[in-house]
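On clarity, I found the account of how folds are encoded harder to follow than it need be. Since the whole study asks how a given chain folds, the encoding of that fold should be made plain. For illustration, here is how one protein appears when written out as sequence plus structure tokens:

:::
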Amino acid sequence: MRLADLRPDDAEPVRLILNDAIENTTAIYDDQPRSLDTVRDWIGIQLQNGRPLVGLLDEREKLCGYGTYGTFRTLSGYRLTVEHSIYVLPSHHRRGGGRLLLDELTRRATAAGLHGMVGVIDSENAASRRLHEKAGFALVGTMPEAAIKFGRWLDVCFYHRLLK
């Protein structure tokens, strides 16, 4: 697997990956699939704002995951802390792609002069929690029943890493 910067014309495979997470997992606390136009516009905004949008390509050069980061909170005091997101298709889980994406996002955030990164993870997502812990993120808090999806309440864990 290898990493590549994504562009607006990558919107369809990004949409498929994101909608799989929306429809089948608690990796994102949303239940509304995204349209192609919405994803294309979002990619443009991310790139226009200088936010990385990193794709994970498999051996056949097919997009099988992506990662990005963006605003953690909108108040100015939070401007040097970002929240990241990583999504990998289930068919490509446990192959090291999530770690490649997380390491690259951490590298880019550090190079951009950012101070900290936050990962917001469903408490039952043991694989993502382990990934973050191995990458130097620490669990800094859990909010019980912070969201609802698939008809049940979900606890959310906040992982944080200071960048050097």
Observations:
- The CA atoms of residues 4 and 153 lie 36 Å apart.
- Residues 2-162 form a domain with the Aminopeptidase fold (CATH 3.40.630.30).
- The first helix runs from residue 11 to 24.
